Amino acid sequence: METVVRVAVPIPAYRCFDYLAPAGVPLESLLPGVRLSVPFGNRIRVGYLIAVVETPGCEVERLRPAGAVLDAEPLLSETDLKLLRWAARYYHHPLGEVIQSAFPVHLREGRGAELARPSGLVLTPAGAALDPATFRRAPVQRRLFEILHGRERPLPASRLAELAGSGRTVRDAARRLVERGWAEWVDLQDRRIPAVVGSPLQLNPAQLGAVDEISANLGRYGVFLLEGVTGSGKTEVYIEVIRRVITRGEQALVLVPEISLTPQLERRLCERIEAPLAVFHSGLSETERAAAWLGFQKGEVGVLLGTRSAVFAPMRWPGVIILDEEHDRSFKQQEGFRFSARDVAVMRARMADIPLVAGSATPSLESIRNVQRGRYVRLVLPARAGAAVAPRYRVLDIRARRLQDGLSEGLIAAMHDTLAAGDQVLLFLNRRGFAPALVCHGCGWVARCRRCDANLVLHARESRLRCHHCAAEHGLPGCCPSCGQEDLRPLGVGTERVDEALRRLFPEVGVARIDRDSTRGRRSLERMLERVQQGEVGILLGTQMLAKGHHFPGVTLVGILDVDAGFYSTDFRAAEHTAQLIVQVAGRAGRGEKPGTVLLQTRHPDHPLLQRLLRDGYPGFAAAELAERESACLPPFGYQALWRAESKELALSMDFLARLREEADGKNGAVHWLGPAPAPMPRQAGRYRAQLWLKSARREELHAVLTDALARLQETPERRVRWSLDVDPVDFY
DNA sequence: AGCACGCCGACT
DNA sequence: GTCGGCGTGCTC
C-alpha cells in the first residue's frame, strides 16, 4: 500500500487534495508543514503537507503522485501549523490560502529556503584603512562607509534601504564598495542571538513595575494591556522586556500597524538591543522579506519588527509578542483572508505559551472588556514628570458661524496667539483633496463618479476630479455639463483647501500638509516631519496619518476641524474610532512646561459621547460606550460576521445573500440576521454590492451557522457573484 | 483561482 | 463558416 499525503493547495476551496507520496521519499520526511510541489489540474503548484493519511478522500485511481518535497524540514512548527489551522477555521477561510499567507512570496513560489540567506555588509581591511575623503564624489558610498566604520557587527542587508533616499541607491553604493574590494558580504547564517544585549534603560517605577510583571510571566501565556498616553514611555517597557527575552535566548515579535512606524521603532530597538533585528513589511523587496522571515524562522534574528502580515512569521524560540497601538484598525486585513493580527497574535501567544504585550493610549473596547473579565492584565503608565501635561480640551460651537475654508474665527484667533508665542499648531481634518464635491451653482448638478455611488473629489492644484473609491479620474469641466453655465463651485472642505487658506491667512508661516496626496514620494513624509521638527513649519495640517506615532513637541495647539463627521455615522464603531483619533491627535501636542490645548469644532457641542470624552477622558468615554454596546448586544458583548456579495447587478448580489439566509434561517434561533441589504455604497467600480449581517451572543452558534452555510455553498456554488465572509468585521462599507 | 469545455452571436 | 464571449465544472 502506497503512502498517501493530504495537501492544502492555495485555492479558494474548503478542502484538501490527496496525493501519492513522491517516489523514494522516506516517511520521516513527510512532516506536516513541509512544502510540496504537486501537479494540480494541468499546472504545478506549491502545496502544504497537512498529514499522512490512511484512507484517501477519493478513489485511489485518481491519486496523482506529488512532485517533490521542497523542505528537508518543515519551515512551520507544529504550533505554527496549529495556529494557521485555527485561523482557517475561525475566519472560515480556505486552509491552503491561510497557510500560504504565512509565507513570503519567494517561498510560496517554491524557491528553496536556503537561497535567500540573510547577509550583512562589513568593511574589508583595505576598506577600513581608507580615508573618508576617498568618497568626495560619492556621497552615498561615503555615508555607507562611515556607518560601516562605526560598527562592530555586519550591517544587515535588510537595513540598507533606510539609510538614504531610495533603497536602490544604497544598494548600488554597497555594490560599488564590494566591487572595489573595500567591503564584503558576510553570511549572517550561523549567527545566533548573542547573549550580550545592550545596557539597561533607566526606568521609572511604573515602567519597572510593568516590566517586572511581564517578565515574571516569561515562558507562560498572559496578555498585558499596557496603557499609557503618548510620552508615558511604553517603548522603554517594550525594549526592556525584549532585552530580558533575548537574554533568555528567545525571540521577540514586534507588530506595528503601519510601515511608517517601523523606522523610528527600529532605531530605538537597535540602540538598545544588540541582537540581530529584521524588519518585515510590504515596503521591502521580496528577497529582503524572505531573508527576514527565514532569519527569524531559523532563530538567527532576535527581533522581528513588522506589520500585520508578520504575525504568522515562524519563531524558532518564541519569547514574546509586542503589539504596539493595539487599538489600530490597520491590524485587520480588509481583503482576501480577513484576519485580525491583534486577535491572531493573542491566540498565537496562547498556543506558544508566551506573553503578549499590547500597548495603547486608547485601547480598543475589546481589550478593555478583556481586562474587566480578568483575561488580560492591565498595566498603567502614568504620564512622566517632565513629559507633556494632559491637554486642555475646548469645544468650539460652530453652529450658525461662518467658516473660512473650514476654519472658525475662534480657531484662527487661537492660532495667531499660539504662533505669536513661537509655538506650532496642528490641524486635523480627515478628508483629503480640495473639496469633497463640485457643484453647479446654476442647476445643482454635482460631479459624480460614473462607476460608484459617490461624488468626485476636487483636487484643485492638479485640476483633477478624482473618485476616492475607484481609479476614476477626470479633468475639470470648464462649464456645467448639464446646463452649460460657467459657475462650478467646490463644496465642502478638504486638507488641500485648508492648506491654501492657511497660506493666505498666515502668509509668513510655513505650512506642512501631511496626507496621502502630499506624501506620495518615497521619503517625502520623513522630509516633511524633519522640517516640522526643525521649526521651519508653524502649522502642521493633515489627515489621520498625523495621529500615528510621531510626536511634535513644538505643537501646543491642536485644532480638530470636523469632529461631527466621526460621531454621526452608521458604523457602530465610529464613536470609538473618533474618540481614539481625538485623543491620539491631542497626544501629539504639548511639552513639559506648556500643556497643549485642543480645540474641537463641532455643530453638536452637547453630543453625550463627546461630552463624556471631554469630561472624563478616554477611560470615561470607554465605560459609557461599553455600556451602550452591552445594551445593544454589540461587540465585545456579541459576535458578528458580515457576508458581502458583489456582482454586475444589485439583484444578483441581493438574491445570492437572500438564498444563504433562507437556507439557514430558523435553524439556529441564537443567530440574528440583518439583511440582505445594499452596502452603504451600493455601487463601487461598476459592481453592485450587498451585505448580510449575522449577530449572535454566542460565538459558537455563529460559527456553526457559517460552517453550515459554507458547506451548502460548496455543493451549489454561485459563480456570477463574488462573495467574501468577514468574521469580526471592523468596517461596514 | 486558473483552465478547459461548450454553446451562442458578429466578423474575416 | 470560425473567433471569442463567459457560464459551468473540476482540480487529488
Automatic annotation (TrEMBL):
Gene3D superfamilies: P-loop containing nucleotide triphosphate hydrolases (3.40.50.300), PriA, 3(prime) DNA-binding domain (3.40.1440.60). One of its GO terms (biological process) is double-strand break repair. This is Replication restart protein PriA. Component of the replication restart primosome. It is an enzyme of class 5 (isomerase). It comes from Methylococcus capsulatus. It comes from the Bacteria. Residues 215-381 form the Helicase ATP-binding domain. Signal peptide: none annotated. Zn(2+) 1 binds at residues 440, 443, 480, 483. Initiates the restart of stalled replication forks, which reloads the replicative helicase on sites other than the origin of replication. Recognizes and binds to abandoned replication forks and remodels them to uncover a helicase loading site. Promotes assembly of the primosome at these replication forks. Binds 2 zinc ions per subunit. GO terms for cellular component: primosome complex. Keywords: ATP-binding, DNA replication, DNA-binding, Helicase, Hydrolase, Isomerase, Metal-binding, Nucleotide-binding, Primosome, Zinc. It holds the Pfam family PriA_3primeBD. Its cofactor is Zn(2+). HAMAP family: PriA. NCBIfam families: priA, PRK05580.1-4. PROSITE patterns: HELICASE_ATP_BIND_1 (PS51192). The lineage of its organism: Bacteria, Pseudomonadati, Pseudomonadota, Gammaproteobacteria, Methylococcales. InterPro entries: DEAD/DEAH_box_helicase_dom (IPR011545), Helicase_ATP-bd (IPR014001), Helicase_C-like (IPR001650), P-loop_NTPase (IPR027417), PriA (IPR005259), PriA_3primeBD (IPR041222), PriA_3primeBD_sf (IPR042115), PriA_C (IPR041236). Belongs to the helicase family. PriA subfamily. Zn(2+) 2 binds at residues 449, 452, 467, 470. Its EC number is 5.6.2.4. One of its GO terms (molecular function) is DNA binding.
